[in-house]
């Protein structure tokens, strides 16, 4: 392959800004970096990543910071709004312009929707969107795509189930939108009222994607190659009663997995509540911790590419 | 109702019948202090019925025009000088509109960080409604 993919200086705001070829290139880059072993520590030597987190998300922030340390770079930043100058009324634009003077690349999470795109207008350093409110979370999605490649070798022909609250699960929406570019089948299992939102459904229809929706997995579980489980939160249900009645239908345990393919891959964006029983953790099917590691490896690829170092 | 000829100013013609009143609401105050003729539901060979607005001694302001185009995309604007039409403007709806529409999603960054220009992708739908998508938060509004 001679095609070159120059990401230097590029912002990563939305997975929809990336072509499928570019996404596959990021997957390959993540692999290449891992194959370098300790040599990867030379990649971003002397570079600084700023992690600007106006709302706490320890998991995502640690993943970005670990990614930068594994590339041999340094990290600075803040992890909640109350400790920042924005608490004193500084605009997002001013914060970004200042930090861009200190750091070579910026990973940010901000509760306002569209904030990463706004930040990119004021930064000559690459901005990586680590979540802008309920809107986008591209690095999670790219990490999930990398996970599927690592675990399955290919996306072609995969039958992927999505279980749980599919209405509020932001990670699901971007992942589904991206997966619809590939030759996969998608099956959505959610309690009534927590189905995939209309805009996701119509975008799937527009793309001619193969998908189905139902309240339970009966009949389809045995067909699935992958089951992506999302958090079920009590407050999303009409009543406590309804929650208690339904939560077990959206819970994965060993007993349920008896009815599935023996090699079904279980994923979850973490943190989990009770959706996945801990007795699943020791099974090889439990992909959700490996998924977190792949997420970090994808972030290593993104940082390296956007800095023009790979 | 008969609309008088004007010597200098602009004529906004081919406004969908009944929409003229909404366009009047968009006029900046300095325009409201000049002489305005407004006729609603008048016969039009092309449209069946239409509204028409004539404003004396006013220049065409670009941003204001775009607001007008958003409301009534089919209208035409003639600039009159010395009783002659010197320019005809078709305010075509641009695909991207900066700085006019306000995002109504309270969680949108443009609502809190007010120095940001609003940026909307607009498209006319088959039912005549205008689909407006904020390019920051991607929320879609119809009008
Ligand atoms: Zn918006």
TrEMBL record, chain A:
Coiled coil: none annotated. Residues 10-149 form the Aspartate/ornithine carbamoyltransferase carbamoyl-P binding domain. Carbamoyl phosphate binds at residues 59-60, 109, 137, 140, 270-271. InterPro entries: Asp/Orn_carbamoyltranf_P-bd, Asp/Orn_carbamoylTrfase, Asp/Orn_carbamoylTrfase_sf, Asp_carbamoyltransf, Asp_carbamoyltransf_Asp/Orn-bd. Keywords: Pyrimidine biosynthesis, Transferase. Its EC number is 2.1.3.2. Pathway: Pyrimidine metabolism; UMP biosynthesis via de novo pathway; (S)-dihydroorotate from bicarbonate: step 2/3. GO terms for biological process: 'de novo' pyrimidine nucleobase biosynthetic process; 'de novo' UMP biosynthetic process; amino acid metabolic process. Residues 156-304 form the Aspartate/ornithine carbamoyltransferase Asp/Orn-binding domain. It catalyses: carbamoyl phosphate + L-aspartate = N-carbamoyl-L-aspartate + phosphate + H(+). L-aspartate binds at residues 88, 170, 231. Gene3D superfamilies: Aspartate/ornithine carbamoyltransferase (3.40.50.1370). One of its GO terms (molecular function) is aspartate carbamoyltransferase activity. Belongs to the aspartate/ornithine carbamoyltransferase superfamily. ATCase family. Catalyzes the condensation of carbamoyl phosphate and aspartate to form carbamoyl aspartate and inorganic phosphate, the committed step in the de novo pyrimidine nucleotide biosynthesis pathway. Heterododecamer (2C3:3R2) of six catalytic PyrB chains organized as two trimers (C3), and six regulatory PyrI chains organized as three dimers (R2). NCBIfam families: asp_carb_tr (TIGR00670), PRK00856.1 (NF002032). This is Aspartate carbamoyltransferase. It comes from Acanthopleuribacter pedis. The gene is pyrB.
Automatic annotation (TrEMBL), chain B:
GO terms for biological process: 'de novo' pyrimidine nucleobase biosynthetic process; pyrimidine nucleotide biosynthetic process. GO terms for cellular component: aspartate carbamoyltransferase complex. Keywords: Metal-binding, Pyrimidine biosynthesis, Zinc. Residues 97-141 form the Aspartate carbamoyltransferase regulatory subunit C-terminal domain. Residues 1-90 form the Aspartate carbamoyltransferase regulatory subunit N-terminal domain. It comes from the Bacteria. InterPro entries: Asp_carbamoyltransf_reg_N, Asp_carbamoylTrfase_reg, Asp_carbamoyltrfase_reg_C, Asp_carbatrfase_reg_C_sf, Asp_carbatrfase_reg_N_sf. This is Aspartate carbamoyltransferase regulatory subunit. It comes from Acanthopleuribacter pedis. The lineage of its organism: Bacteria, Pseudomonadati, Acidobacteriota, Holophagae, Acanthopleuribacterales.
């Amino acid at each position: 392959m001679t095609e070159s993919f120059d990401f230097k200086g590029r912002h990563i705001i939305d997975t929809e800004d990336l072509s499928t070829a570019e996404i596959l290139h990021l997957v390959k880059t993540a692999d290449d970096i891992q194959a370098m072993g300790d040599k990867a520590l030379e990649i971003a030597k002397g570079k600084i990543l700023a992690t600007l987190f106006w709302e706490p998300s320890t998991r995502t922030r640690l993943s970005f910071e670990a990614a930068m340390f594994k590339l041999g770079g340094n990290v600075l930043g803040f992890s909640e709004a109350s400790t920042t100058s924005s608490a004193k009324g500084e605009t997002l634009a001013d914060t970004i312009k200042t930090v861009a003077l200190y750091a070579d690349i910026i990973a940010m999470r901000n509760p306002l929707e569209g904030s990463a795109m706004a930040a990119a207008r004021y930064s000559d350093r690459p901005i990586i969107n680590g979540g802008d409110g309920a809107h986008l979370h591209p690095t999670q999605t790219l990490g999930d795509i990398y996970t599927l490649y690592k675990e399955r070798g290919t996306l072609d022909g995969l039958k992927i189930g999505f279980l749980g609250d599919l209405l509020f699960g932001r990670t699901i929406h971007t992942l589904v939108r991206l997966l619809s570019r590939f030759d996969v089948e998608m099956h959505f299992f959610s309690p009534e009222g927590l189905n995939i939102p209309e805009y996701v459904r119509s975008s799937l229809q527009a793309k001619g994607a193969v998908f189905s929706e139902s309240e339970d997995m009966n009949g389809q579980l045995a067909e699935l190659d992958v089951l992506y489980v999302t958090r079920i939160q009590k407050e999303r249900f009409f009543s406590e009663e309804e929650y208690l009645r339904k939560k077990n239908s959206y819970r994965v345990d060993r007993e349920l997995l008896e009815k599935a393919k023996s090699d079904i891959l279980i994923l979850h964006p973490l943190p989990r509540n009770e959706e996945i029983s801990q007795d699943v953790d020791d099974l090889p099917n439990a992909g959700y911790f490996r998924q977190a590691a792949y997420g970090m490896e994808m972030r290593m690829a993104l940082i390296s590419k956007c800095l023009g170092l790979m | 109702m008969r609309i008088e000829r004007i010597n200098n100013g602009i004529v906004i013609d081919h406004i969908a019948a009944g929409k003229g009143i909404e366009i009047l609401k968009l006029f900046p105050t300095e325009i409201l202090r000049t002489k305005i003729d407004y006729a609603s539901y008048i016969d039009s060979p092309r449209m069946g019925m239409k509204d028409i607005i004539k404003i004396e001694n006013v220049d065409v302001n670009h941003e204001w025009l775009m607001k007008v185009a958003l409301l009534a995309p089919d209208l035409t604007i003639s600039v009159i000088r010395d009783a002659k039409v010197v320019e005809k403007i078709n305010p075509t709806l641009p695909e991207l509109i900066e700085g006019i529409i306000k995002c109504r999603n309270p969680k949108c960054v443009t609502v809190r960080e007010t120095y940001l220009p609003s940026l909307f992708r607009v498209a006319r739908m088959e039912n005549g409604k205008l689909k407006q998508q904020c390019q920051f938060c991607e929320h879609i509004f119809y009008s």
